[in-house]
Amino acid sequence: MFAELVLKAQAPRHSKYVRYKDGAKIYGMSVRQFTTLARDAGAISKINRMVLVNTELIDKFIEYYRMK
């Protein structure tokens, strides 16, 4: 039981690519705000009609504009 909890705690927070709805949940914002953030960060990839957002680029973008 304890080993399972430790493994879950060490699991990555999210996958590298997410859709708008999932990304908005991960980052705790509305879908519209997340879409704007993804565009500004240049993190959007389109495959046919599916849009994927690179969360690594989003994280770097947020860190760059972090207030010190």
Can you describe this structure?
The protein has one domain: Arc Repressor Mutant, subunit A, CATH 1.10.10. The chain has a 3-stranded antiparallel β-sheet with strand order 1-3-2. The model has no long low-confidence stretch (mean pLDDT 86). The chain has helices spanning 2-10, 20-27, 31-41, 55-64; strands at 17-18, 44-47, 50-54. Helices cover 56% and strands 16% of the residues.
Please give the count of helices: 4
How many strand segments?
A: 3
Assess the beta-strand content as a share of residues.
15-25%
Shape: globular
- Main sheet properties: 3 strands, antiparallel
Using only C-alpha atoms, the radius of gyration works out to: 14 Å
Low-confidence stretches: none
Q: Give the CATH class.
A: Mainly Alpha
Write the layout of secondary structure elements.
Blueprint: H1 2-10, E1 17-18, H2 20-27, H3 31-41, E2 44-47, E3 50-54, H4 55-64
Antiparallel strand pairs: 1-3, 2-3
Helix pairs in contact: 2-3
Task: Describe this protein with a few key phrases.
single chain; 68 residues; alpha+beta; Arc Repressor Mutant, subunit A; three-stranded antiparallel sheet; 4 helices; globular
Write a short abstract of this structure.
The protein is an alpha+beta fold and 68 residues long.
